[in-house]
Hints:
It catalyses: L-proline + NAD(+) = (S)-1-pyrroline-5-carboxylate + NADH + 2 H(+); L-proline + NADP(+) = (S)-1-pyrroline-5-carboxylate + NADPH + 2 H(+). One of its GO terms (molecular function) is pyrroline-5-carboxylate reductase activity. Catalyzes the reduction of 1-pyrroline-5-carboxylate (PCA) to L-proline. This is Pyrroline-5-carboxylate reductase. It is a single chain. This protein folds into 2 domains: 7-171, Rossmann fold; 179-270, ProC C-terminal domain-like (ProC C-terminal domain-like fold, Orthogonal Bundle), CATH 1.10.3730. An 8-stranded mixed β-sheet has the order 3-2-1-4-5-6-7-8. Helix 1 links the parallel strand 1 and strand 2 (33-37). By secondary structure, it is α/β, with parallel strands linked by helices. Helix content is 51%, strand content 14%. The protein is built from 12 helices and 8 strands. It starts with 6 loop residues before the first strand and ends with a helix. Helix 7 (169-177) crosses helix 12 and helix 8 crosses helix 9. The chain has helices at 14-25, 40-48, 62-67, 82-89, 108-112, 145-156, 169-177, 179-196, 201-222, 226-232, 239-249, 252-271, and strands at 7-10, 33-37, 52-55, 72-75, 98-101, 119-123, 133-139, 159-163.
Amino acid sequence: xxxxxxxxxxxxxxxxxxxxxxxxxxxxxxxSVAVSTRSAAxxxxxxxxxxxAESLEENPHANAGVVGGAGAVLLGVKPAMVVDTLREIAGxxxxxxxxxxxxxxxxxxxxxxxxxxxxxxxxxxxPALVRRAVxxxxxxxxxxxxxxxxxxxxxxxxxxxxxxxxxxxxALSAISGSGPATFYYLTExxxxxxxxxxxxxxxxxxxxxxxLVGSAELLAATxxxxxxxxxxxxxxxxxTERLIAVLxxxxxxxxxxxxxxxAIARAREMARG
Length: 273
């Protein structure tokens, strides 16, 4: 793992908090991490884990306070707050610090227009909470190999990293960023179908959830193509063949493509402000 410089995390909520805990679990010294949070209670909880923490509730300048001396700054704030947060901390940033954002729709050019630092834009997904994330990483115009290595190390602590050009990050967001919601939606639909077939809610959720989780684990364990695993459970003239035929009639591939295009269009709207 790349040796990380001192890290400041602004807005240590669910996603950024998962990243910090992943880093600590991978061997990063908690004392090398500083976080800003909204509430005093959250800051106190982080301090109990050995992390330096300040809250906006106790200190309105907490964001600027924690970035001093940091070699990497992770922006965990909501997209609408990114530009204002960067303006707030610009004077406190070390000139060599790399700024890493997890905000959807905020381009590297937008961030570079506020601070002179190297910028890296990322798009992780919520499985970061269990260290199984997929994170897209995009280098800004001032970010070189060293800055990319820092960003890669941060997100490898919570999963897999994919480097890509910025023009593809909205598409990545539609697949891996929104992908967990697609999985949960499918789980909901299978659960409701099972209930309509006479299972209790508890039984229905067990059947749907464990079938999908087990299938995903089998896919990962075998390394086989999904189509091949599907073929193995689709006996000619059997029940699964009939089920798949109905799904094919619904043209699910077209539905998924339209859904992804809608997500991409929304990301571009957000980038335009």
